[in-house]
Design a protein that fits this description.
Blueprint lengths: L2 H17 L2 H4 L4 H8 L20 E8 L6 H6 L2 E2 L2 E2 L1 E2 L10 E2 L10 E8 L9 H10 L3 E2 L2 H10 L9 E3 L3 E2 L5 E7 L5 E7 L7 E3 L1 E6 L5
């Protein structure tokens, strides 16, 4: 995408968060929320990023709001796809049970950019444990719960029935559950979990190229 298109897309995503009530969730005014997120816009001025390709599962970037700022369940409730709101079913856990794995570094601050996103088409029907090595070999990073929610918040049509995606960078540390976002039997966007040794014909593992903080230079 060219610079102008990236900036237009950033403004769309920021407005999307505002329209979904994120300022109220953070107990900030709209103006203060904008001021909190808007510095990320400058980071796009020097980047060359891919075009949006929903079929192949490629995105240039998304604005990620951290669950420390807005709880993941509340963010997921505001995901809308084909008239259905998102749901979270992580029993016996909650989203806070899942922590970022040790070799993934998340930028400081309440929000950041995830850039060069791949839904994981090549890893469909690949067990998450195997997909993790595939992602690392490509010098890419697995994604977190916050990042998966951000993707379907800004691009709900990115979530496809034949290529939903696991989020390998969020784990409980105590079991083999891997969070994932898929379309459930009620056709709702569903944040749930699968076992890391189990392949699924409709589930890949998403990845990103880089994470850029508010003070990126």
């Amino acid at each position: 995408m060219n610079k102008l298109d990236l900036l237009v897309e950033f403004d769309r995503q920021l407005q999307n968060l505002i329209d979904k009530g994120y300022p109220q969730l953070t107990q900030l005014s709209e103006a203060v929320f904008r001021d909190t997120v808007n510095p990320l816009r400058r980071t796009l001025e020097t980047l060359e990023l891919p075009e949006v390709d929903l079929e192949q599962g490629k995105l240039p970037f998304v604005i990620v709001v951290k669950s420390d700022f807005v709880p993941a369940e509340q963010m997921m409730e505001r995901v809308q796809k084909d008239g259905k709101n998102g749901v979270t079913i992580l029993r016996p856990h909650t989203s806070t049970s899942f922590q970022v794995i040790g070799d993934v570094k998340i930028p400081d601050g309440n929000a950041y950019l995830l850039v060069d996103i791949d839904r994981g088409k090549e890893s469909i029907n690949m067990p998450p444990a195997e997909a993790m090595q595939h992602i690392k070999n490509a010098n890419r990073s697995p994604l977190t719960i916050d990042e998966g929610i951000a993707i379907v918040t800004h691009y709900p049509q990115f979530l496809m029935k034949n290529n939903c995606f696991s989020l390998l960078a969020s784990r409980t540390g105590s079991d083999q559950r891997v969070p994932a976002i898929w379309i459930n039997g009620k056709k709702e966007p569903n944040l749930g979990w699968c076992w890391d040794g189990n392949p699924h014909t409709w589930l890949g593992s998403a990845s990103g190229g880089r994470r850029l903080p508010l003070n990126f230079d």
